[in-house]
């Protein structure tokens, strides 16, 4: 099956005054197939956001290439981005518009016709529980609603490739589950999703395959189950969580990450 | 082979999309839009044109004698291009780039960052032109400015507003905080507004200042507007200076903003 998103030998370095360039991402290669949810797992500063900025076409790579549905995003950005939806880590909602207008405006950027945009926008707002807020200004939405709206906006064109950079940060458990459900539905429709997260539960639950990223390099790439089996095994782990209180649990991706890097997923400086 | 208009439409459609986004916001708050676009230049016009103008009588500049009201009417046309273009682009684009981050959001769609920046500049220039057109219209109706000249000055005003919008965008791209935009505002925009010949003929300034002012873009724009609307002599140097600044500013502003956003 042809990959929807292909990243080939991607390297990105930043120039620094009076210092050698800082290499944020080193020789990264992976692909995301239709219907697959692919996770980029790593702590802050691992190179996740740099990778995402490169593969959404915003930053030019130092080496390598990114193909969306076969189109090189840096050489043929219009054709590539026609198939791409992006929800970036930072809040990029257009605060000059209300919820529905925001969706409609962004739909026009994909040259969709008006009726198609309205139908799609209403469906997405309904699914994400934002329909009641459709005439509200962005500033009146809670943090979680803003995040959901940003995901909804990324989906307005029904893209073949969806890139989500920490989409569930700041979401309450209920909203997080709604979003997971939406991603699962999209997967059934054949949408390829790249999910950057530092929530191991999310990664384990949603991702078919995961690349563990650390200091710009992929340490390993496999399914969550295989990664856990390979590095930790299947035995129950016993932890003393408080003096005298022993907690028995299954091994998880956090254990894998600790074993591979010596650091926890929540550590590190922000990028 | 596709017809030329199809290629043209494909190239300009994304820029039009961005421009329409600004127009949509402007029309949503049309009362605010009208007040911020038209009130300031009209207040200057009434105060200086009719107030001070009735006391001063006529002035002589470039060998032509005109009433002071005519002189400042044409001056305020250029001033609107400067103020509306610069302030909308400098503060507005800083907010859109730094706080709202919508340049990045729009550039995540099939619209490229280059097209987003073109849309931004063209909208800022549109706002400046609207403001300048209000004064041109008033000047034509009152008989102070040549109606045909005023009509011909509209494209020139658009280019002038584009020049000052580019200056504003450049300053936004260079500023680390929104407060830093005050430096070019006080050290460049206000001095230009005061010493480039909006209120008085340049000939009244010391020669060194005259020479310095003649290389500034507002002086060049003023000279061209007064040529069209008041039959002042055409100055080829003004046209050259104007084109030089226009090309330089458009290029440098887009390049600096792109470098700031794309690492």
Describe the structure.
The complex is a heterodimer of chains A (271) and B (263). Chain A has 271 residues and is of the alpha/beta class. Chain A has 9 helices and 12 strands. Chain A has a 6-stranded mixed β-sheet with strand order 6-7-8-3-9-10, sandwiched between helices. A 4-stranded antiparallel β-sheet of chain A has the order 2-1-4-5. In chain A, helix 3 packs across helix 4 and helix 8 crosses helix 9. The model of chain A has no long low-confidence stretch (mean pLDDT 89). Chain B has 263 residues and is mainly α. Chain B has one domain. Chains A and B meet through helix 2 and helix 3 of A and helix 1 and helix 4 of B.
Give a short synopsis of this structure.
The complex is a heterodimer of chains A (271) and B (263). Chain A is an alpha/beta fold and 271 residues long.
Short descriptors:
heterodimer, A: 271 residues, alpha/beta, six-stranded mixed β-sheet, four-stranded antiparallel β-sheet, 12 strands, 28% strand, B: 263 residues, mainly alpha, 80% helix, 3% strand, globular
The protein's oligomeric status is: heterodimer
What's the overall average pLDDT of chain B, rounded? 91
Query: Radius of gyration of chain B over alpha carbons?
Result: 19 Å
Chain pair forming the biggest interface: A-B, 30 and 24 residues
Averaging pLDDT over every residue of chain A, what do you get?
Answer: 89
Judged by helices, strands and strand pairing, the structural class of chain A is: alpha/beta
The CA-CA distance between the termini of chain A, in Å, is 34 Å
Largest sheet of chain B: 2 strands, antiparallel
Major sheet summary line of chain A = 6 strands, mixed
Q: SSE order of chain A in H/E notation?
A: EEEHEEHEHHHEHEHEEHEEH
Strand-pairing-aware structural class of chain B: mainly alpha
For the secondary structure, the number of strands of chain B is 2
Distance between the termini of chain B: 38 Å
**What share of residues of chain A is helical?**
25-40%
Number of domains of chain B: 1
Radius of gyration of chain A, in Å, reads 19 Å
User: Helix count of chain B?
Assistant: 10
